[in-house]
Every structure is written in C-alpha cells, then in structure tokens.
Amino acid sequence: MSERGSGAEQGAAAGISLKHVTFVSLSIAFLFLLAVFILEFFKPRLSVTVMLLPNNTVAISGRLTYGFDPVPNQYVSIEVVDQNGETVWKDFARTLADGSFKSVFTLKQGAGGVFTVHVDSIIATGEASFHAGG
C-alpha cells in the first residue's frame, strides 16, 4: 500500500474537509447577515409626517425611536425650506414619553411650491416634503 493511503481514505478525508469548509463558510455568512440585520434594525430612526391643513396651516409630527423603543426627552430641530432653499419656518420640539413630537405653523398667504422639512436630533435625522398651492 502507498504512503498516501487508498483512494477511499483520501476521498473520505476530502469529504470531511469539504463538509467542514462548507459549514464554516455558511456559519460566517449567517453571522454576517445577522450582524447586518441587528445593526440595521437597532439603529435610531426619526420619522417625519407633514399635513397641510386649511388656512395654510402646516402640522409637522414625527417619532424618534431606537429599535422598538421610543426616545423621550430629546430635542429635535425642525426647519422648513422652500424650493429656493430659503428657510420659511424654524422650531425646536421635545419628544414626549412615546418619542413623538409636533410643530404647527402657518405659511404666509400666497406661499406655494414644494417645501422640504428637515428634522434633526442628536442621534438621527429625518426629512419629508409637501406641496402647497400658491
């Protein structure tokens, strides 16, 4: 018999090695995907909603969360800019126990076009747009 062993022994050793490599590769891929999911899921989020009400009243609301948990007692800065980049409203709000915040203002008479709302907190940012007739 040769020093290398029989073909059956070599095949068995290669099969075990291939199974091991496959298992390790799949394990690494699974851990990578799990890490990506955890990092994506458990990051801070700032949702922003805009409602255009009668008489050019604009209601801005949103919620600051970290994963499933609300982030209370955090200040958010709110800036509304028109399509020319000019600031038409600026405010600060504090999140409530459920992470929500709200700001209401009135657009100047005759103001129109597309407006963008930027909301910033120390841990997250959010944005929304709305259109008002002019």
Overview of the molecule:
There is one protein chain. The protein has one helix spanning 7-41; strands spanning 44-53, 57-66, 69-70, 75-81, 87-94, 100-106, 113-120, 125-132. It is α+β, with helices and mostly antiparallel strands and 134 residues long. The chain folds into two domains: 1-41; 44-132, Immunoglobulin-like (Sandwich), CATH 2.60.40. The strands form two sheets. Strands 1, 2, 3 and 6 form a four-stranded antiparallel sheet that branches. A four-stranded antiparallel sheet has the order 5-4-7-8, with no helix packed on it. A hairpin with a 5-residue loop joins strand 4 and strand 5 (87-94). The longest helix has 35 residues, at 7-41.
What's the gist of this structure?
With 134 residues, the chain is α+β, with helices and mostly antiparallel strands. It is built from one helix and eight strands; from the N terminus they run αββββββββ.
Order of helices and strands: HEEEEEEEE
CATH class of the largest domain: Mainly Beta
Continuous helix count: 1
Assign the structural class, choosing from mainly alpha, mainly beta, alpha/beta, alpha+beta, or little secondary structure: alpha+beta
Please render the helix and strand layout as text.
Layout (H helix, E strand, L loop, with lengths): L6 H35 L2 E10 L3 E10 L2 E2 L4 E7 L5 E8 L5 E7 L6 E8 L4 E8 L2
